[in-house]
C-alpha cells in the first residue's frame, strides 16, 4: 500500500458519497473517520459508531481546543472531523476516509496531514435531481435549494486532486483507490 493519507471524498448532496465510501471501506486499507455533529441521531444511529452526537456547547469546546481537522455549519447543523481519530488511523497504516462537504475539504487541504481530495460528480444534474427526489425525505423547495448548492459546489471541482463521476459506486471506489496508489 502507498503512504497512508486522508482520503477526502466530497461532492454535492445526493451524489452518492456515503455509498461510494461504503464500497471503499470494504477494502482493508481504508478506515472511516467518525464525524462529530450537533444534529440528533436518526433511526438506529449510534454515538461513536455512526457519529459523535455532541451538544452545541461540547462541539464549541472541541473547536476551541483545536480537536477538529475541519468543521462546518451545514444546513443548520455543525459537523466536524476529529483530528485524533484521523491521526490514529494513519499511524495504524491505513487511509483515513472522510466523507465531508466541499468547505470541509478546503480546510483539510490547508492542513498539515497528507491527503488526497476527491470530488464526486453525478453523471448529470438530471440524475442528481432524480437521486435527491428518490430519497423521499425533502420537499420541492429543499430539493431546489440542494440543487442550487450542488451547482455552486460543482463549479469548485477543479480545486480537488481527483474528480470521479459516480456512474456506479463500485467503479467510483475503484477510481479513488487507484488514485491513492
Span between termini: 7 Å
What ranges have pLDDT less than 50 throughout 5 or more consecutive residues? none
The coarse silhouette is globular
Over all CA atoms, what is the radius of gyration?
A: 16 Å
Order of helices and strands: EHEEEHEEHEHEHHEH
How is the biggest beta sheet arranged?
A: 5 strands, parallel
Explain the overall architecture.
- It is a single chain.
- This protein has one domain (6-180): Rossmann fold, CATH 3.40.50.300.
- It has helices spanning 17-25, 56-64, 83-91, 102-109, 125-135, 140-154, 169-180, and strands at 6-10, 30-32, 36-37, 52-53, 68-74, 77-82, 95-99, 115-121, 162-165.
- Helix content is 40%, strand content 23%.
- With 181 residues, the protein is an alpha/beta fold.
- The chain is globular, with a radius of gyration of 16 Å.
Q: SSE layout and pairings?
A:
Blueprint: E1 6-10, H1 17-25, E2 30-32, E3 36-37, E4 52-53, H2 56-64, E5 68-74, E6 77-82, H3 83-91, E7 95-99, H4 102-109, E8 115-121, H5 125-135, H6 140-154, E9 162-165, H7 169-180
Parallel strand pairs: 1-7, 1-8, 2-7, 3-4, 8-9
Antiparallel strand pairs: 3-6, 5-6
